[in-house]
Amino acid sequence: MRNDIHAPTAGESPTGVLAYLPIGLFGSVMGLTGLSVAWSLAHERFGASRAIGELIGAVAILSFVLVGGGYALKIATAPQAVRTEFTHPIAGNLFGTFFISLLLLPILLAPLDLGFARAVWAVGAIGMTGFGWLVVDRWMRQRQQAAHATPAWIIPVVGMLDLPLAMHALGLQSLHGVMVFGLAVGLFFTVPLFTMIFSRLAFEEPLPDSLQPSLMILLAPFAVGTSAYIATTGHVDLFAESLFALTLFLLAVLLGRLRHLVACCPFRVSWWAVSFPLAAAAIAALRIANADPGHATDAIAIALLALATIVVAGLLVNSVIGVARGELRALSG
User: Fold this and answer.
1) Number of domain units in the chain
2) Does residue 243 contact residue 229 with C-beta atoms inside 8 Å?
3) Is residue 128 part of a domain?
4) Cβ neighbours of residue 283 under 8 Å, at least 6 residues apart?
5) pLDDT tens figures, 226-281
6) How far is it, in rounded angstroms, from Cα 152 to Cα 85?
7) pLDDT above 80 for 298
8) What CATH number does residue 263 fall under?
């Protein structure tokens, strides 16, 4: 089996409406939602226009509706393609992007309809926990190949770390045990998974070009972990600052690795893998800046917010142009 996230459908010409649509496209919803939250925090810290975050949030919700509708068509017309994608040792982990979207979108939905937002979060929390259990069980039950230990394996872990993020906005602080549960499981599994993936990157063949953007996923557990820890404990302490320091170090490494991506590789929807980790890093920086105001923390927060905004805007423009030209199949390959 090829070491490719899109191996389930590539080269097999599956029949069915949108059978080629990858589940990982929900990463666009994650990135847009994260950027919306980041701009909301920038409104609190720097007085940025609230309308920016609201506009990005509206695009995130629309993106979820479009991607969700497209994937529902795939499920209805090409169920075998969905089953193949789900059982794939790499692509199967990307089903977590759907549940993560359900955990993040309630932050945007809460001001509109608190009851509906809570229901969406509950579905996401139950689904993410069940999916995380299923993936860990699969890892322990079946022998895994070292070549399959790619950054996509991090996604179920990041999903558990997302459990606490919307709970304050939803007024669910009384469910503190759920927050601790998500934080504990997410951080615990980050350590061995990051070690295995780093070992694979260091000692095995390099990732193919199609998977290079997924390297940015390695940033997510530390960036999201920073926000999850602050949300769970209610304050910024040495551990939160340490997680954020790791975020900055890894970001510097990964930006160096991916700086030539645009020049060497054609755009694919898999590039959306970089969006949420960058947005999560900006959110973490803004939370740190809010707790510890200063020239350095403010400068870092502004720089990361600008970087995430530019990257997400570029991804969105390229995606819209590609869809308008009828190139979605090619971009999904």
Assistant:
1) 1
2) yes
3) yes
4) 34, 37, 38, 41, 223, 227
5) 999 999 999 999 999 999 999 999 999 999 888 777 776 788 888 999 999 999 99
6) 13
7) yes
8) 1.50.10.150
Q: Residue 187 above 90 pLDDT?
A: yes
Answer whether residue 11 is part of any domain. no
**What is the pTM (predicted TM-score) of this model?**
0.91
Percent of the chain residues topping a pLDDT of 70: 95
> What does the CA dihedral 171, 187, 5, 259 come to, rounded to 10 degrees?
100
Within-domain flag for 321:
yes
Q: In whole angstroms, give the CA distance from residue 106 to residue 294.
A: 31
Distance CA 89, CA 91 (A): 6
Residue 90: inside a domain:
yes
Torsion of CA 290, 40, 218, 93, to 10 degrees: 140
Q: For the chain, what's the residue count?
A: 333
User: What percent of the chain is modeled with pLDDT above 90?
Assistant: 74
Domain that holds residue 136: 23-331
- Contact assessment for residue 31 and residue 63, using Cβ atoms and an 8 Å cutoff: no
The number of helix segments (H) and strand segments (E) in the chain equals 13, 0
